[in-house]
Amino acid sequence: MTGEKSVVDNPSTLVWAVRLLYLECAALAALTVWLVVQDLTSDDVNIGVAASLTVFAAVGVAFIFFVARFLGQRRRGSRGPAIVIQLFVIATGGFLIQVNPLWLGVVLMALGVLVGLLVVLPASTRALGID
């Protein structure tokens, strides 16, 4: 069997990484909706800052969605952006640990590390054709 590559049809590591990316996308979409509601209903709001933050969150939703989709389609170039997203998730978790809520910071950091590891495990790497 030397010289043969093992073909992995659908590694669970990659499947779970994609599922968790979609979960992150859904959570950020919910946050975006909450920001829109806050923008529209708040009496004391700086329109420029509020709109910028809301648009930034919405762009993040689209970016995470497409990265998850491309990772699910096994596009080779999707692994790097998936890892960058997880670095942002870990950084956000670290910030939340400092300013509260502590539990959410711990959850985000664990999620970022988990998805990052799932994406770089050998089965996922082989499925993406990067080995």
The radius of gyration is 18 Å
Largest sheet: none
Give the ordered list of helices and strands: HHHHH
Total of helices = 5
End-to-end gap: 18 Å
From the helix content, strand content and strand pairing, which structural class follows? mainly alpha
Question: In percent terms, what proportion of residues is strand?
Answer: under 5%
Helix content: over 70%
Task: Tally the structural domains.
Answer: 2
Mean pLDDT rating: 91
Low-confidence stretches: 1-6
Gross morphology: elongated
Kindly state the number of beta strands: 0
Keywords: Membrane, Transmembrane, Transmembrane helix
Transmembrane segments: 20-37, 49-68, 80-97, 103-123
Description:
This protein is mainly alpha-helical and 131 residues long. The chain folds into two domains: 69 residues; 54 residues. The chain has five helices and no strands. Helix 1 runs antiparallel to helix 2. The longest helix is centred in the N-terminal third of the chain and has 30 residues. The chain is elongated. The two termini are 18 Å apart. The N terminus is likely disordered.
Topology:
Blueprint: H1 12-41, H2 47-72, H3 79-99, H4 102-120, H5 122-127
Summarize the structure.
With 131 residues, the protein is mainly α. Helices cover 78% and strands 0% of the residues. The longest helix is centred in the N-terminal third of the chain and has 30 residues, at 12-41.
